[in-house]
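Much of the work behind modern protein science is quiet bookkeeping, done one molecule at a time. The protein below has been through that process, and both of its lines are reproduced in full.


***
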Amino acid sequence: MSSIRRRTLTLIIGLLLTGLLILSLFNLHDSNHEIAEVYDAQLAQNARLLLGVMHMPLASKERGELYQAFNKALGDAMPRVDGHPYESKIAFQVWNNQGEVLVHTASAPAFSTPPTAPGFSDVLDLNNRQWRAFILEDSANNLRIWVGERGDVRSDLVERIVRHTLWPNVLGSLILAAMVWLAIGWGLKPLANMAAILRARHSGSLEPLQLQPLPSELEPMQAALNRMLAQIQQVLGRERRFIADAAHEMRTPLAVLRVHAQNLLEAGTEQERRESLMHLINGVDRTSRLVNQLLTMARLEPQSVAKELPSIDLLGTIRESLVQMTPWLLNKGLELVFEADDEACPARVEAATINIALNNLVTNAANFSPEHGVITVRLKRQAQHIELSVEDQGPGIDESQRERLFERFYSRGNDQGAGLGLTIVQAIAVRLGGQIRLENIQPAGLRATLEMSLT
């Protein structure tokens, strides 16, 4: 894409030239009209002056001498040193009622038949030259006065006027274009300064921009850039935190796996090898769960841009998720109970997010439930929120440890856990605009309630 300066200048100069063209056409039309009016008035005035001369009270002999003197003087009216080139392009003639020419200029055109229509007209002479003429009838003295001028007189004058007007306009437009170019450059200088500062910054610098002074038009751009830099810092912070957490938590499981592998190599009996192999399989399973939980935590970090979620049937989503978990619970000797309203429960949430939260809550309940215990899942719709709760029949929690249960990698009484389950559920609760509550129930057990906002 071309530069802003070039685009703006092209638009301004284009509009300027278009306006100049329209004004020039208007001036041309107006000049033609005014020149025609002035020259027509002069033709009419010359005809009336000539008529006044022809009306002088003279005897016939004296009048004839006057005509001869006229013709002799006008016969000399060709371009001379003391004359004007236009003299040959202006002419007049006087006829009597018999069609005889009484007086005429040497430049008077020849006609096959004398024109008779009074007033203004455009005529062609025998040499196909156009004349603008005015005919004045004198019925009392049987005279017809014809005064005319060549058409190129007017066109030459209009051409001179347009030429003398157009060149200053063109020159002025070029000067104005140069001034506009400099003015646009001066106006865009703050933007150029901002671009130069951005180019000069280190590639790893994420510090907010603080450009002073800053035009009001560039303040939204600076604010947007600062928001983007802050978001990049958050993303990099989450990545660093994820890498640090993964490195910290993977160190111990990998060390344990190495010990089990060494024990497997050093086992002396089949029973020892089998036990070491089972420990190794359990360690691999635990490491796999840890990796999955870490990836889930990374996926559930707060998003910088909120998006409009489609409405889903929350009841159907939870029921389908529980159906998939039922075989695993039955294999552990546990019973699953689901209680919910009969009506559908629409909500604007991600089905995958609900499945992750429910999976973690039910897994925690299964890990602390006694043999043949019952896990109860309830879905309730309140006025302003929806509650999804999971109850077990385990030992419950110590009130002093309630807050620590939401800490990363804190696992209470479960060696196979990664300590991220409730942390993930809490992140989901924040994401859904709600909260997670833990409370002991009687006679024994723990209820974990995920509250989701409807707004």
Q: What stands out?
A: The chain is about 55% helix and 15% strand. The chain has three domains: 4-159, 216-299, 312-453.
